[in-house]
Specification:
Layout lengths: L1 H27 L3 H38 L41 H10 L4 H8 L3 H15 L1
Helix pairs in contact: 3-4, 3-5, 4-5
Amino acid sequence: MESFLLIISFLLHLVTLTIIFQLFRQRSQPKFDTQTEELVTLLETYLQEIKEENNRLQEAISSEEDKATSVPKGVAYEPIRSQANYDYSEQENSSYTPPVPIEEDQVEASLQSRILQLHHRGKSNTEIAKQLDCGKTEVELIIKLYAKNGE
């Protein structure tokens, strides 16, 4: 009878240790699955909104091109000559040299940093998008990603 109780006790201890080990493994496993899923859904919605914006932009551009290419009847069309094709030898003053622009080094902040600066100043997402001439969803995404990484 004693041996029977010892075997049952041994089996119960074995089952308990197995359960404890499984719980420990689950607890120590990082919880990247939920964060990854959230990030994937966020990026998918962002890409969908970008596609919609691109479609609207293409439609607007094609309608503008249609308006621009339609020339009213009776109007003569003459192409504009660019200065690159201009012959300077026709000028009376042959010593003319075109001015050479002075190039200065300029540092320009990235779009992401400008968005975050304006956001910290209290501007709304719509105002930031209008001021920087970019999409509202792009502004929202950059702010969300910055807030998620800042936590």
